[in-house]
Design goal:
Number of helices: 4
Structural class: alpha+beta
Distance between the termini: 27 Å
Radius of gyration: 17 Å
Shape: globular
Order of helices and strands: HHEEEEEEEEHEH
Largest sheet: 7 strands, antiparallel
Length: about 190
């Protein structure tokens, strides 16, 4: 067996293990930061597998100065990305992928993300900002839960809009097929 073929087989086995473990139950492991367009697919595949029918998967486009990725919690029917901010606090933003969302009390506004419907709900303005942003799409929903210890949250809200993005399930499947040289053609 050639070295490249062995490497492809090992990669495929690892990906299948991650998909199997990620889809069956919740688990706590240190995961890599879920970067959009990353060559390292395992973290995005685990998120995609947590909500099987979601057309979109949340990921991080960039990390603005002052923001820090702190944790990823992937479970059956839910994945949460936690981010801290030096200006917004240790629990500034939680981005959660779910099968569905209840947008009661939220207002629909034009979406800044393709393939989504966006809603916003403000829960508190002072002394700190708390609110939820919802992105609904085929097979899923992503919430941004803000808890910003800042008297002026607008800059942090704008940074979150730039920081968090989406990758389609179709893009993940294509990247996985390429990474495994076609060994896995119909991934997560």
């Amino acid at each position: 067996m050639s070295a490249s073929r062995a490497k492809r087989g090992a990669t495929a086995a690892l990906v299948l293990l991650l998909i199997t473990v990620g889809g069956g139950c919740g688990f706590d492991v240190e995961m890599a930061r879920p970067d959009c367009g990353s060559e390292e697919l395992s973290t995005l595949l685990v998120i995609a597998q947590s909500v099987h029918d979601a057309r979109l998967v949340p990921c991080l486009e960039t990390i603005p100065a002052g923001w820090t990725f702190t944790r990823l919690d992937a479970r059956d029917n839910r994945s949460t990305i936690e981010l801290a901010s030096d200006r917004g606090g240790d629990h500034a933003l939680e981005v959660t992928l779910l099968p569905t969302c209840d947008t009661a009390g939220a207002v629909r506004i034009p979406s800044d993300e393709q393939l989504t419907r966006r809603f916003e709900r403000v829960d508190r303005l002072a002394p700190h900002y708390e609110g939820t942003r919802y992105y609904l799409f085929d097979g899923g929903c992503v919430t941004y839960r803000f808890k910003l210890d800042s008297p002026r949250p607008s800059g942090l809200l704008n940074e979150a809009t730039v920081m968090v993005g989406f990758v389609t399930r179709a893009e993940l499947r294509a990247a996985l097929a390429e990474a495994t040289n076609g060994v896995i053609e119909n991934g997560p």
